[in-house]
TrEMBL record:
GO cellular component terms attached to this protein's record: DNA polymerase III complex; DNA replication factor C complex
Protein's name in the database: AAA+ ATPase domain-containing protein
Source lineage: Eukaryota, Viridiplantae, Streptophyta, Embryophyta, Tracheophyta
Membrane-spanning segments: none
InterPro entries, A to Z: DNA_pol_III_sug/sutau_N, DNA_Rep/Repair_Clamp_Loader, P-loop_NTPase
Superkingdom, taxonomy of origin: Eukaryota
NCBIfam families recorded: dnaX_nterm (TIGR02397)
CDD domains (alphabetical): AAA
GO molecular function: ATP binding; DNA clamp loader activity; DNA-directed DNA polymerase activity
Pfam families referenced in this protein's UniProt entry, alphabetically: DNA_pol3_delta2
GO BP: DNA repair; DNA-templated DNA replication
């Protein structure tokens, strides 16, 4: 007799949140039929995790398919995506860049005087505005406005930029090797073209590039079209080859001061109708380690718990250890009392 195979619960269909390309992904898990097949998907999970760093959702043809959703679900996915505070309130102009006045003044001066370099390196800690500044700089380079600050977001070029057209700007992550190779090939072909507009390439996490890729970029920088601009973004500039740094303009993005972080969070809280204690804002800023993006993420996570945000909620979220408890832990560690150390660790 053949026993009827027990249902594993993998035959159900579930919806995933909307990805950054505005495609809703419908995952049909009926493809997963055995533990062996599940074990082979760990590599796919790693690829998906890496692709999320690149701002895109990686999909396996075996397990994911793209479907059109009805308007209600589409709207729900849009709302969920836009709720992320870092995305919703991302800077659109140089005036909105927080805590990087020297960098902004220098870039604006370059635009006004028309002294645009072929290569730039934006380096500094995570969440300090490097990528946002690069995008604004890219929009400003092709802005047609003759009055006021650039970008204006009113002219034709700014409109195309807002539509995320790749006509003027292309942004890739160094994790995605295939995209990097395509960019390098595209740059090589541009050397023979005459362009009236700037073509900007933003290379995120450039410290992950291989030596071969750096060599290719070096050749491009030496022979590049004057209207091609490459912006390298990294948190580890020491791993950028000296040959590259010598032919690029370098800008350090410092950690954001707590006062600037708090000011920014106050504005977001007011816009989101959040009632946040000043002590809570101080704790968020202190635990963000100078990263405005991390601070905004913490505020968003706390806002999911309710409109009222207190210092106790922040303590629960970030597990803040008081000075007294910290001293107690140090004393126990120095006492070499293994039993007490184990007991205290279990408590935490």
């Amino acid at each position: 007799m053949h026993r009827r195979k027990k249902s594993t619960g993998f035959d159900k269909t579930c919806y995933l949140p909307k990805c950054s390309q505005d495609f809703a992904l419908l995952v049909n898990k009926s493809h997963v039929t055995s533990s062996d097949e599940i074990s082979t998907n760990f590599g796919e999970l790693d690829l998906e995790a890496l692709s999320r760093l690149d701002g895109r959702r990686w999909s396996s043809s075996k397990s994911q398919e793209v479907f059109e959703l009805d308007d209600d679900r589409e709207a729900a996915f849009n709302i969920a995506y836009k709720k992320c505070l870092s995305t919703k309130y991302k800077p659109r102009t140089f005036d909105e860049i927080i805590g990087q006045n020297i960098v902004v003044q220098s870039l604006v001066s370059d635009i006004v005087r028309g002294r645009i370099a072929s290569g730039y390196i934006f380096y500094g800690p995570h969440g300090t505005g490097k990528t946002s500044t690069a995008r604004i700089f890219a929009a400003a380079l092709n802005c047609l406005s003759t009055e006021g600050n650039k970008p204006c977001y009113l002219c034709k070029e700014c409109t195309l930029f807002c539509e995320e057209s790749e006509l003027f700007m292309r942004e890739v992550s160094s994790i995605n090797k295939k995209c990097i190779d395509r960019v390098i090939n595209l740059l090589k072909n541009m050397n023979t073209l005459k362009m009236s507009r700037y073509k900007i390439f933003i290379i995120n996490e450039c410290h992950l590039l291989t030596s071969k890729m750096w060599s290719a970029f070096m050749r491009v920088l030496e022979e590049t079209n004057s209207n091609v601009v490459i912006i390298f973004i990294t948190i580890d500039h020491e791993n950028v080859p000296c040959a590259i740094t010598s032919c690029c303009q370098k800008y350090l993005f410092s950690k954001i001061k707590d006062a600037d972080v708090i000011c920014r969070l106050e504005k977001i809280s007011a816009a989101e109708n959040l009632d946040v204690d000043m002590e809570a804002l101080n704790l968020i800023a202190a635990n963000s380690a100078g990263s405005l993006e991390d601070a905004e993420t913490m505020l968003y996570e706390l806002s999911l718990l309710g409109k009222r945000i207190t210092s106790s909620l922040v303590n629960d979220l970030v597990v803040v250890i008081s000075d007294e408890k910290l001293l107690e832990l140090v004393e126990i560690a120095m006492s070499s009392n293994n039993e007490e150390i184990a007991k205290d660790l279990n408590h935490w």
